[in-house]
From TrEMBL:
Needed co-factor(s): FMN
Stretches assigned to the NADH-ubiquinone oxidoreductase 51kDa subunit iron-sulphur binding domain: 493-538
UniProt entry keywords in alphabetical sequence: 4Fe-4S, Iron, Iron-sulfur, Metal-binding
Coiled coil, from the record: none
Organism: Thalassovita aquimarina
A Pfam family that the UniProt record links to this protein: SLBB
Origin organism lineage: Bacteria, Pseudomonadati, Pseudomonadota, Alphaproteobacteria, Rhodobacterales
Protein name: NAD(P)H-dependent oxidoreductase subunit E
PROSITE patterns referenced in this protein's UniProt entry, alphabetically: COMPLEX1_51K_2
Similarity-based family: Belongs to the complex I 51 kDa subunit family.
């Protein structure tokens, strides 16, 4: 390549980057949109590109680099024109992902973590992509492939090498399909039980129409009377949150939908986004009416990029029908929503980190107080609720508070969407009233041979058979929706070690207890798995977990030790069976073979003392 051609290419890239920045008004708060578009276009974000973006947005290059380096889907090294991301969730592993990964490596001639020499394809692992009910799964650029097998991998690799687009793997008529058909061709919704609120037949716009005839204060009263609590895990009273935001002194307020469900084993919002997108937008619009908001953001996790066109179509349809935008429903009520895509960061499920990401920053949690309801997005009063919560709000305005209040369990009203996966016959979505037992849900899902159940996913509670009669409710086993089933053939410590590795990978790194403490916990669990733990190590796990919980800045650190603490409590014999008491003051955790490995490597010979087969 001669210098003139090189200069021409750089000039073309600069023009494309300038156009991308101009599309969002060179707004630094839209940095996520800029960087995602550049990544898709150029397949990486180089230092000169960062400088160009920084100049356009009025930032330093370091500020842009800070955002690029934070998100897993943004890269500072060239990626292939096709990037294949293999889901590395524990469910995918148990479902056969190791064989699928090996098949990809063999077919593509590269290892996981590498890019082919011709720049055609990159192969890498990624954490849970919200498809545990149809594992093993992978993303191929923006296309999702599910229930993969080594044979299917060979077909996929051959098609891609033959010049087919990732879209052609779904259908050769992909471009002619509707956005909804494109989504459902890629992913099955697996709705196993449709309940009385969200997955039953739902009228179009009934809740919003009623809300337009009510005062904002009356809407909030209706939500409060229903007993609706946030469905993302924390369970904060929804009406109370809305009331705080409405009361905050401000000229502008913001509604944000948290569609960044990254908890391993959770995929309920994925189904609602596919099957009830209008209900979601209706719920957000009702919330805007209640608190006096004019601006909305729907934050969609990067792994759900295949739903982008469907959601954009729904937003435009509602604008065209006068249900979004200016003068909604003929009233003096203006509210619109923009779609914000994430880029692969579990921490952005925490509302402060999500707000930071919406502002074009690294997804780091914000210090509290102030709370988002008084100072959130760009310092404005902000309501953040998840997909399920907004959908319930729309149904409450349609059917009335008493209707919702009468379903469920004391303190846990209404229905709940449970994402069931793992060792069961019928993985998928179950909409059921709060208050049913784990045992009843297992029977419905065909998971009666379960030996352990992770309620709430990685950050929830792992229970054993003697606790299967406990209830799924805010006052007993609270969950954002994930119910992961493990039969007696699974190694509990392997599951715990995976969950801890997930938290190590997904920590934002801001605070030391979470950044360092989870690494120590993961290594300690490795000692138990290797048979190198002492009885004292059990106390070490408890003490370190307590320190992380007490001193971490956000919810990730306060829940990350849960896999260890709940299995210590509910599966104590598993830990007791792996520990070795100290002998002659020598801790079992000291492994002489590991200790001299580096010496063997440097000396290029084995040990005459510690290698038993040296003389053979």
């Amino acid at each position: 390549m001669d210098a003139a051609t090189d200069r021409e290419l750089r000039r073309e890239d600069a023009e494309r980057i300038a156009a991308i920045c101009a599309d969002v008004g060179d707004d630094p708060h839209r940095m996520m949109d800029i960087l995602r578009a550049v990544q898709d276009d150029l397949r990486w974000i180089s230092p000169p590109v960062m400088q160009l973006i920084a100049d356009r947005a009025g930032l330093s290059r370091i500020a842009v680099e800070g955002v690029v380096s934070f998100y897993a889907f943004l890269s500072q090294v060239p990626k292939g024109r096709i990037t294949i991301r293999l889901c590395d969730d524990i469910i995918d592993r148990f479902a056969g992902m190791p064989a699928v990964a090996a098949a990809f490596e063999a077919a593509l001639g590269i290892k996981v973590g590498e890019t082919s020499a011709d720049g055609a394809v990159s192969l890498e692992y990624t954490p849970c992509i919200g498809l545990c009910d149809q594992a093993p799964a992978a993303m191929v650029n923006d296309i999702v492939l599910t229930q993969l097998t080594p044979d299917r991998v060979a077909e996929v690799a051959a098609a891609l090498r033959g010049g087919q687009r990732p879209e052609d793997l779904i259908s050769h008529e992909f471009d002619d399909l509707s956005p909804h058909d494109r989504a459902t061709r890629q992913v099955k919704n697996n709705i196993r039980h449709a309940g009385a609120s969200l997955l039953c037949p739902v009228p179009d716009g009934a809740g919003l129409q009623r809300a337009l005839d009510m005062t904002p204060g009356r809407i909030i009263e209706e939500i409060e009377a229903s007993g609706l609590r946030g469905c993302g895990g924390a369970g904060f009273a929804t009406g109370r949150k809305w009331r705080f935001a409405a009361a905050a002194e401000a000229e502008r307020r913001v509604i944000i939908c948290n569609a960044d469900e990254g908890e391993p084993g959770t995929f309920k919002d994925r189904v609602l986004l596919t099957e009830r997108p209008h209900l979601l937008i209706e719920g957000m619009t009702i919330a805007a009416r209640a608190v006096g908001a004019t601006d909305g953001i729907l934050y969609l996790r990067g792994e759900y990029v295949y739903l982008r066109e469907l959601i954009e179509e729904v937003l435009q349809d509602r604008r065209d029908r006068g249900l979004l935008g200016q003068g909604i429903g003929g009233a003096e009520f203006d509210f619109d929503i923009r779609l914000q895509l994430g880029a692969g960061a579990y921490i952005c499920g925490e509302e402060g980190a999500l707000i930071s990401s919406c502002e074009g920053l690294p997804g780091e949690p914000k210090t509290r107080p102030p709370f988002p309801v008084t100072q959130g997005y760009l310092g404005l009063p902000t309501v953040v609720n998840n997909v399920e919560t907004f959908c319930h709000a729309a149904r409450i305005l349609d059917k009335g508070a008493q209707w919702f209040f009468d379903m469920g369990h004391e303190g846990s009203h209404g229905t709940k969407l449970f994402s069931v996966s793992g060792d069961c016959l019928n993985p998928g979505i179950y909409e059921l009233p709060y208050g049913l037992s784990v045992r009843d849900l297992l029977a419905m899902a065909g998971g009666e041979d379960a030996a352990a159940v992770a309620v709430g996913g990685a950050s929830g509670t792992m229970i054993a058979r003697d606790q299967f009669d406990r209830t799924l409710s805010f006052d007993d086993l609270s969950t954002a929706g994930a119910v992961v089933i493990f039969n007696g053939s699974r190694n509990i410590l392997e599951i715990v070690e995976y969950y801890m590795s997930f938290f190590v990978h997904e920590s934002c790194g801001y605070c030391t207890p979470c950044r360092v403490g989870n690494v120590f916990l993961q290594k300690a669990i490795g000692k138990f798995r290797d048979g190198l733990a002492n009885p004292e190590d059990i106390d070490y796990l408890k003490d370190l977990s307590g320190t992380i919980i007490e001193t971490s800045r956000c919810g990730l650190g306060t829940t990350s030790p849960n896999p260890i603490l709940t299995t210590l409590e509910n599966f104590p014999l598993i830990y007791a069976a792996t520990v070795k008491p100290s002998k002659d003051r020598i801790r079992a955790s000291f492994d002489i073979q590991s200790a001299i490995d580096s010496a063997r490597h440097l000396a290029k010979r084995r040990s005459t003392i510690f290698d038993e087969d040296f003389s053979k």
